Amino acid sequence: LYLSDASAAVASSSVRCTKAYVATAGGAALLTDGASAVFTDSMLAECAAQRGGGVRLASTATAPRGPGRLDTYAITSAPTLRLEGTNVSNCTATIAGGGVDGVGTAGLRVEIVLANSTLSDVASVDGHGGGVAVADGVLSLLGSLVERGVAGHGAAIHASSASTVHLNGSALTS
User: Fold this and answer.
1) CB count, 10 Å around CB of 103?
2) How many CB atoms lie within 10 A of CB 129?
3) pLDDT by residue (tens digit) across 102-152?
4) How far apart are the C-alpha atoms of 44 and 60, rounded to whole Å?
5) How many Å apart are CA 1 and CA 129, to the nearest integer?
């Protein structure tokens, strides 16, 4: 699933990838340029990427107008992701965010919300953020669980570049 300046609602669905293929960004989903996605009561499993084994959010200041065009337009909002009652399991990243990786900018901070969701057996073995990696963004875990995460830095969560992390009724376990 690739969203650029678009939105998607995924409900009661299952996305199972094959780790034989490693995506550059976002094993199951890639959100850029103001995109938003809500996954409800769903599952993302066995996905792999360099960044964002399960999902990758990437914020940029400008985007191309379309294939073959050289002109760009300004991006006015950052990508957002909400996982509600969703399980992300057995996903890996080589660089960052075994489950989810979000990179914003100073002016366009990505937003990641996990509500009553679970990230399990997620890894960025030589990288950072086994469960979630976020830079220039806001991460909120509400009644959620990140378990059995593995990473070079931040087995459950790795936050950097003026990011904010909110935990409410959530657990991080190894």
Assistant:
1) 26
2) 36
3) 999 999 999 999 999 999 999 998 899 999 999 999 999 999 999 999 999
4) 25
5) 22
Residue pair 65/109 in contact (Cβ under 8 Å)? The answer is no
Interatomic CA distance for residues 81 and 55, integer angstroms:
9
Locate 5 and state its tokens: 């300046």
Amino acid of residue 116: N
Cα–Cα distance, 18 to 46 (Å, whole number): 6
Bridge partners of 132, per DSSP, are 100, 157
**CB contact set of 84 (below 8 Å; sequence gap of 6+):** 38, 39, 40, 41, 115, 116, 117
Inter-CA distances, 23 with 18, 32, 81, 150, 157, Å: 10, 15, 19, 19, 21
141 contacts: CB under 8 Å, gap ≥ 6: 114, 165, 166, 167, 168, 170
Q: Is the pTM of this model over 0.90?
A: yes
Report yes or no: 157 and 146 within 8 Å, Cβ to Cβ. Answer: yes
Residue 144 has a CB neighbour count (10 Å cut-off) of 24
